[in-house]
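By convention, the token line describes the chain's fold. To illustrate:
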Amino acid sequence: MPKVSVCLPVFNGRRFLRAAIETVLAQTHNDFELLIADDCSTDDSLAIAEELAKRDSRIVVWKNPSNLGLFANYNACIERASGDYVKLFAQDDLFMPTTLEAHLAVYERHPEVAMVTCSRNIISDSGQLVEVLGEFDEDKLISGDEVIESNLTRYCNWVGEPSCVSFPTKFRSTGFDTILFHYGDVEYWYRLLENGKLFYSTTPLCSFRRHEGSATRRNMRSMNFIVDLGYLGDKYRQFLEQRGVTREKYWERMIETISPWVYSMVDDEGLREPDSSDLASVDSYDPETMARILKAIRYASMLSLKRLTSEKLRTESLVKDIESELFDNEEKLSNLVNSPVTRASSAVRNVLQRLGSKMN
């Protein structure tokens, strides 16, 4: 059995896929398997992967019988992993030559570690270095509980993207929670870290490609991340309350944290409603998922208004009046709230209106 299982989910990744795979094959540690799950790509991604698999027996390629989506496709890879460790990867990204070697060295030195992550190079479409992104100035060994608490209450992600991460296969559990849109990785990191400590390496061991077509960018513009943050707050409600963070306080802090980004999208990029590309399949959502989306967005909108509008709008009677007419009387709301909040929250309300019509 191989020492490491590199898990690479693929969907329409022809543009960068070959370069990504070649960085795995160039590793200084060569005892690995590369598991590539093609999620019914409509381009020639599968052909590229199969071509390279013919040249190297460590590559295992298959096509899913139906399109699973990103997190479920990761799970398809993780379930097949036969190595002692799982190393996640993404079709747009690149490994450094010593990535696997460096990760394995940490586990040999620190058997209490449940996950290894690292700083990463942010690169452009063309592969040019944009910046080095990291959370710490020195290598750190951090307890799992500290990571979970700090990241939940600060709405941040010390661990980073999947290409940064590895973990012992024995901790894989059920994999990513596929109900999540954007923070499925963060939620998985929390569960993995219930098994031990996080080791953070300041050495950039991978390159994360930032471009308009990335899943991260689509989810941010569609504001799916708001729904996911709400879900995380509810899932870890007891954990948070034990540390003095009530549900309302969690949402108030979350609105404060995300508001600058929402304002930036509205003012700098002209966003007036979320990108609908990830909402096209809304008819396929089950009732429980739909209810969660509606609840989370409604709560986010109301807390945003309560906290950020004028003192007059904060009075209980007027807030109740806005709540009753918020989603069917856009003109009245605009007259009452002549501020950046209206523009910033309109994107969220438009999603709710579209989703609400699907429920009726």
Notes: Residues 159 and 189 are 7 Å apart (CA to CA). The radius of gyration is 22 Å.
